[in-house]
Amino acid sequence: MENPIGNLINQLSRLPGIGEKTAQRLAYYIIELDEARVKDLTDSITRAKENSGFCSICNNITDKDPCEICSNDSRNKKLICVVEQPKDVMAIERGKKYKGLYHVLHGDIISSVDGDEKIKKLIERIRDNEVEEIILTFTPNASGQASIIYLSELLKPLGIKVTKIAYGLPYGSDMDFFDKDTINIAIANRTEI
Ligand SMILES: [Zn+2]
C-alpha cells in the first residue's frame, strides 16, 4: 500500500541518529515547507550524491580525486592518521592543528568493508612515500582496541613509528562529539605503541 507520509517517515528514521519521533517531526516539517524549498532540499541531496566519490589515495569522501587534503602540497606526507570514518577527518580538521594526511577505513578493522584492501593500500602508501609515523585513532571500545593491536603488530615491522592518540576521551565515545581543543590535545599527547 502506497503511503507517502509513512514512507517518508520510514526513510528518515533509517538515517543515523534519527529515531522514530524525530523522523515524524522532520517529515511533517518537510510537508509544510513550500515547494521551492522542498525542491532545493531534494536537489542538494541528489547533487551531493552524484558529485561525491572516494579519494583513490585516502578513501575519504570527496568531490574531486585526489581529495583536497591529499593534493595539498603543504601537508606533511610523512605522517598518516588512520581514522574509522570520514566524519573523524572532519572532526580533526576542525582543530586546524594536524597537518598530516589521513587513511579512512570506513569502520574499524572488524566492521570495515574491504578492510583488507584498505589496509593493503595503507601499507603501499607507507612504502611508496617513506612515511615516518602512523597515528591510530580508533573509537575507545573493544573493537577499537582490537584494531589498534592488530594494526600496530602489522605496521611496526615496517620500521615506522606507530602511535595512538591520548584518550582522555571516555570509553566507547565517538570522536565526533569532542570539541577541537580536546581533539588537538589527544593528538598532541599521542603515545608510541
Ligand atoms: Zn585523499
Number of strands: 7
Biggest sheet: strands side by side, in what order? 4-3-5-6-7
Question: What overall geometry do the principal axes of the alpha carbons give?
Answer: elongated
Mean pLDDT: 90
Calculate Rg over CA atoms. Answer: 19 Å
Q: Identify the CATH architecture of the largest domain.
A: 3-Layer(aba) Sandwich
Q: Biggest sheet, open or closed, and with what strands and sense?
A: 5 strands, mixed
Strand content: 5-15%
Whole-number tally of structural domains: 2
Give the helix proportion (percent range): 40-55%
Q: What ligands are attached or bound here?
A: zinc ion
What string gives the helices and strands in order? HHHEEEHEHEHEHE
Please characterize this protein's 3D structure.
This protein is α/β, with parallel strands linked by helices. It folds into 2 domains: 48 residues, RecR Domain 1 (Helicase, Ruva Protein, domain 3), CATH 1.10.8; 139 residues, Dna Topoisomerase Vi A Subunit, Chain: A, domain 2, CATH 3.40.1360. It has 7 helices and 7 strands; from the N terminus they run H-H-H-E-E-E-H-E-H-E-H-E-H-E. Strand 5, helix 6 and strand 6 form a beta-alpha-beta unit. Helix 1 packs across helix 2 and helix 4 packs across helix 7. The site of zinc ion has 8 residues, from loops.
